[in-house]
Amino acid sequence: MFLESFKVTGLAVTQIFILAAIGYILVKRNILGEACLDTLSRLTIEITLPILIFCQLIKDFSFTLFPNWWIFPLISVLITALGLVIGKVFSVFIRGEEHKVQFMGLAAFQNSGYLPLALVAALLPQDKAGTTFIYLFLFLLGFNLVMFSFGARMLESNKSRKFDLLSLFSPPVVATLGTLFLVFIGAPKLVPEFIYRPLKLVGECTLPLAMIVVGGNLAQIHLGRINFKAIALLVLAKLILLPAFGLLFFRQFPVPELIGLLIIIELAAPSATLLSVINRLQKKEDLLIGQGIFFGHLISLVTLPVFLSLYFSAYMVK
Question: What is the pTM (predicted TM-score) of this model?
Answer without folding.
Answer: 0.88
